[in-house]
Model the fold of this input.
Amino acid sequence: MEGCARICVRIVEYRPFVGICVSAPIPDLPEIAVYVPDVQRYESMEYRRCGRSGIKLPAVSLGLWHNFGGADNFEKARAMLRRAFDLGITHFDLANNYGPPYGSAEETFGSIFKKDLQPYRDELIISTKAGWDMWPGPYGNFGSRKYLLASLDQSLKRMGLEYVDIFYHHRPDPETPMEESMGALDTAVRSGRALYVGISAYNAEQTAQAVKILRGLGTPCLIHQPRYSMFDRTPEQGLFDVLGKEGVGAIVFSPLAQGLLSDRYLQGIPSDSRAARDFFLKKKNVNESMLARVNALNEIARQRGQSLAEMAVAWVLRDARVTSALVGTSRVAQIDDNVAALRNMKFSDEELKGIEDVLRREA
Ligand code: NDP
Done:
């Protein structure tokens, strides 16, 4: 059921904590769409502690990298955010350059936030990032204090927020001293622009260094955002160990390998899929040997009574050091499917071995 109730009423009293509008019909008023979130939204979602912090994140979070830009359908984006919140997804992840065009996913989010989510600001964890190319010239990329703080100010404006919950450095900068980038994150918190800070794409060694600097500044690193899925297991080679030891959470992006780990490509490349756009997910990667592996994994998922997307989400969450699986979606039904992973999170040794055997096959 979609969370949107289209109601032609005068709101007499609004009680956001129970999601109830006490209302009276007024026939001569224009129709207004009032979003009333599902009152049961916290009942089935699992919330996992983020490292050794006070924050819990939903086991499934929603990222706005694709399908929320200015070039995308606004009402579809709105329906996905509503459905996500209805299902207990309290965390939405953005970055300065999500779109296209750059910045437009934050604008879309800001607009939907204002229409639908503003009364629930204190129920939401909203993150953004800076670190990749954003504007021309020497101050619109990488990791200088100048870039990170200017970008955060722009992000807040686009989203219409007073603060973000998490501000990330999106990638390490080989030229800027890490002390400067981490100092900018610390300033973001001390100036009230962010509540917590995180890093993304830092390797294990860089992460250990960043965590130490941030701790010294008195602004602990809340979270790391690495790519992790059955098809990319890099964080298992040291990063998760550092995060576990330091008490830093992990929110893993592209847990479905951009859609490969789902039923999306079992019958070829659909014209409305990410691979069809041949940019971030290349058509050449959806090849015969990849599809053979995907089909074999799909069979294991089927035997578990899950879709492959569900199994892919459950698989990344099998490691207790992973706080949240950060999925993307192009339609409402995919959100339901990904959250349904929570119904079967346990893997038998035999299932795990079966998955390993498939992953070891030549790609
Ligand atoms: P996913 O691996 O979840 O891929 C999302 C895509 O998979 C969707 O767009 C859709 O593809 C397909 N899909 C999702 N759910 C289903 C389903 N149930 N059934 C079938 N297909 C499905 O993640 P993303 O690559 O989108 O990344 C998620 C988020 O991670 C981003 O939005 C962003 O917030 C973050 N991220 C962070 C990065 C960083 O550097 N820190 C880099 C990249 C992402 P289709 O569109 O074809 O339908």
Summary: The chain has two domains: 1-36, 37-359. The pocket of NDP is lined by residues 63-66, 93, 170, 200-201, 225, 253-259, 262-264, 273-274, 309, 326-330, 334, 337-338 (CB under 6 Å).
